[in-house]
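Hi L.,

You mentioned the student needs an example of a multi-chain input paired with its predicted structure. This one should do, with 897 residues in total across all chains.
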Amino acid sequence: MAQDAAQGVTGRSFGRPGEVPGWVGYALLPLLNLLAALALSGLVILVIGENPLDVLALLVTEAVGYPEAIGYTLYYTTSYIFTGLAVAIAFHCGLFNIGGEGQAYLGGLGAGLVGLALTGWPWPVAALGAVALSALFGAVWAAIPGWLQAKRGSHIVITTIMFNFIAAAVMTYLLVDVLIRPGSQSPETREFDPGVWLPTMDRVLGWAGIAVPASPLNLSFLWALACCALFYLFLWRTRWGYEIRTVGRNERAAVYAGISPARNIILAMAISGALAGFVGVNEIMGVQHRILLNFTGGVGFVGIAVALMGRNHPVGIVLAALLFGVLAQGGGQVSFEYPTVNRELVMVIQGLVILFAGALENLFKPRVEALFRRRGGGHDGGTAHG
Amino acid sequence: MPQLPPALETRGVNKWFGANHANRDVSLAVPKGTIHGVIGENGAGKSTIMSIVYGYLPADGGTILVDGRPVAVRSPRDALAAGIGMVHQHFMLVDPFTVLENVLLGAEGGVTLAAGMARARTELIRLARDYGLEVDLDRPVGELPVGAQQRVEILKALYRGADILILDEPTGVLTPQETDHLFRILRALREQGKTVVIITHKLREIMELTDNVTVMRRGQVVANVATAHTSREELAELMVGRKVLLRVEKAPARPGAPVLEVAGLRVRDGAGVERVKGVGLTVRAGEIVGIAGVSGNGQSELLEALAGMRPLAGGSVRLRGEELANQPDRFTARGLRALGVGHVPEDRQRVGLVTSFEAQECAILGHQGDPAFNGRLLMDRRALFDRCAAEMDAYDVRPRDPRLPAANFSGGNQQKIVLAREMERNPDLLLVGQPTRGVDIGAIEFIHRRLVALRDQGKAILLVSVELDEIRALSDRILVMFDGRLVGEVAPAEADERRLGLMMAGVAEAA
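Structure written out for the whole complex:
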């Protein structure tokens, strides 16, 4: 009996369904958290001596104010969607995949090898090959920590972090000693045959007769959106997704249901790694057209924030990835314009968004929900339970 | 002589959990020096009101009075200062610490332990003598039997100066003998002028022990009566709000061929400790075999092993005559389900359901690969919904909403979702653990009738329960388990409480 009292405090299990409208959780609260983060960021900017409203206006303009900016923003968004989905699917299996960075790095190697090998082939073949091999490399890189977790009990957080370092070391070795363009000083491969480059969005739209300015945004953006749809269908509409979610939510129930936690942990990690690996398609096949050092630049870690803020749901992840895309693109431009608002300060703003959206997720929740309950209250709440 | 104010009184206490009015104008008075029972179904609000009194939960309105004076109880610390102590259903003890250290925890009284220890020892010896609370002060708590651990909890409360002792479902984990011992202690406390409040859903205990009883239903007090002026039947009716059948009506069993034959079964728990030490039993078609025992004597492991959730450490398991123990690929949860074994697990919330899933998703747990719910790639949500809706109709699950998360159903309705899933697959063998734990009386009646009906269809049922009343009411044969072994078999007609109790405590073998 102590138990049901406790349930009433922690879970909302006694609440009547629908008493707090769904959009409160999915839209209003994230918005409030974002506003709080922006308000605090504004204070920081004020302390530095700049006008926060001017800075914010510039940030937004530089991110979404004109077509080229939008292209850049969506290019960042693409990678964030991939890593956000990667973190989310692991999370649905109860795993915290910190290794998106390393998996994306290895995915880039896979995509790049396709780019190097398929000189002279048509780009659609190269694109399919890059998707397949980046997925494979990312999947293997994530499945090893998954296997270690499932079979050996090594904590996934520790092993995935370690695998980020190993990935970095492996890539440095390959680029410095194996794949380097002969005669070159900088550790990167030769440029791929332009015929296999993944077409940029401006080229694709150009074929359709729509003229937009050039930007790094490429076809992988559409693949990212497709991945969101596939993610949803897989997780909520297939028995395999059902099994992964069961393992993530209640491992003992999974055992009861004859679902192997070990198998699903490895499977979820492999899918997670494959999704992170697609960053390589965007960066290597779409933008850099060669394999180079550190092209990931932290997207794996931003993916954690994206998944957190997007509540591990593809729609939320797209929105959160957009937000971080805006911050990345707009923030970068702001640091050009305002010498005082440097790169580090932009990271502070990003950090505040993560803090409010993720760590302080429940800051406004009880009060806002209470507000809605009181408004809808007054009815008989004596639901029988127990 | 002026009337003494009640030791503990609540006036108009209200508590909301979201939209749920968990306590509605709860007013009750506990006279000084009495044992007061609070009964009600799960979710009636009896634990909520006591959690408010003990300062765990803030009330949304109302007053608490101790000895006639209003007190502000904002935390358990305030409650203790007002002389209110509480013994929880799940003990709050540190296993490796000795009894003395546990009692002292949080009341060390000084920088060094030595002085406090000496003081505590003298005081505890006195308390133990006065109230019959014997425990070895220097034994680690983890080594003590459950009954003794409970006495440590009582000592803790008394040592902190509690005059009012609240016990939440204190007998759930005790053998009948331990329960008797507890009741002796509580009576001794009453004789010394202490006030005892006992929260329970067991009518027998109320009748045996208490002076007055408060009945709660749906957050409200529906009756305050002197125990001497009421009866079990009347209390049950007050709790549920309608007449209840306290006995299961069933015809004699007509057992057929053996469905499950187990011999020499040994099972280890996760830590490698052998919990089932050579168990042999047979369950025939058309009979319910009950396994009685104090919880923790290997019944859970036995049931889970037979359901394929735990590897066997040895022994033989035959299903309809076919040996399965030597076929590890078929002796799995998935494989046994395919062979017609249903399993209602003991802990529906942690094992039988995924509480964050929709009811319709829970309704296929274990059957998620069934072609009936799957297309080539995607699941057939329509089939899922229809199946769950049909089961909800048949089992009267409320609310009848297959899309509602399982967590939003009451315990009884959650249990019906699990039972419907397992029983509607028409299993030849049904393994049932604690089918009515935390389920209210009305639903218990329903579940018992369903189990008997399944038996009458010629199915074999193996029932594990710590509720002796349930075992006796349902079983056609009773096996008693103690320390990983079956220590005897009793026919239900001969199974009086005392005899079962002694066997459950490992004292007596079957005659």
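You could point out the following to them. Chain B has three domains: 8-240, 256-340+427-511, 353-426. Residues 286 and 455 of chain B are 5 Å apart (CA to CA).

Best wishes,
N.
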